[in-house]
Amino acid sequence: MKNGFSLKSTAGLILISVALIALPFVVGMSGQAWVRILNFAMLYVFLALGLNIVVGFAGLLDLGYIAFYAVGAYTWALLASPHFGLHLPFWSILPIGAVLACFFGVLLGSPTLKLRGDYLAIVTLGFGEIVRIFMNNLNAPINITNGPQGITLIDPVSIGGFKFSGTSLIFGFPVSGPQKYYFLLVALAILVIIVNLRLQNSRIGRAWQAIREDEVAAKAVGINTRNIKLLAFAMGASFGGIAGGVFAAMQGFVSPESFSLTESIMVLAMVVLGGMGHIPGVILGAVLLSILPEALRYGVGPVQMALFGKMLVDPESLRMLIFGLALVLVMRFKPAGLWPAPVRAAKEAA
């Protein structure tokens, strides 16, 4: 039985690996725009897994999570662009962004330790907006962030002279910039997933779950709820910082408009839709909510033309209507998420 299970697992891993390697080339046949959509889906996986630590594992509602994404993005932009004349290497900027985001996570978590529910949500929402407003106004009297104009000409990821921007010949095959970033993002996503799995099955992960289920009982059995909560904010924020750094390098431009409240709500929706506290479910939610709206964006117009011969409803409005309706239906019939944790699935079935 063990050998059979092992063979099946190995075969499954091989198939998944082949699919992941072939995916950007197959999708690239329809245009590089779809490869970029895949890349953004991977970034949202980072963000959703980071927020899942705070919301799914520890049960702390955070509506300002996108602020850590902004910290990571601006860290990369300031340290790898002509803005300050600094062009630090990839391997040094990404850890700096993660550490700074971690610091801001502790900064957010410290004054909110005694807050719960709606009050915690309001404070974290305010924190996210404060960071965005700071980025928007730190262009005077000293120009730090270039204000609403944003920072341009940001260096791409470069490892040993190999740049991830532009098309390169690899083993004789042309590989575009988005395709190269795809493989970098897949490698980082695997690392982030492994860290999440290790955290979930550790003493810290069990402490987070105890706080989520009953904080008073967790404190009664000796769990230092203060430190464990701070650790949840810090760990979740660090993933957001990594995602922000890669986003800045991939885009070559950052501005405060990329870090609005809508983005925080979208990431939270990914966690809730997929299944809070369940890593595979969170990944599923992130992929669906990042790719489905874009598929609707490109599909709504042609479908109307094919059925009616003209555009009856603005594609953007109809896209958001369909998207919103789908979310409502899922929350109505699958309140624990599309792929909930086994414990939550059992409760829902009962």
Explain what you see.
With 350 residues, the protein is mostly helical. It has one domain (28-277): ABC transporter involved in vitamin B12 uptake, BtuC, CATH 1.10.3470. It contains 13 helices and 8 strands. Strands 1-2 form a two-stranded antiparallel ribbon. A two-stranded antiparallel sheet has the order 3-8. A two-stranded antiparallel sheet has the order 4-5. Strand 4 (158-159) and strand 5 (162-163) form a beta hairpin. The chain starts with a helix and ends with a helix. The relative contact order is 0.16. The mean pLDDT is 88.
Number of strands: 8
Regarding quaternary structure, what we see is single chain
The major β-sheet equals: 2 strands, antiparallel
Report the helical percentage: over 70%
What percent of residues are in strands? Answer: 5-15%
Overall 3D shape? globular
What CATH calls the topology is ABC transporter involved in vitamin B12 uptake, BtuC
Average pLDDT across residues?
88
CATH architecture: Orthogonal Bundle
Question: Summed up, what is this model?
Answer:
The chain has 13 helices and eight strands.
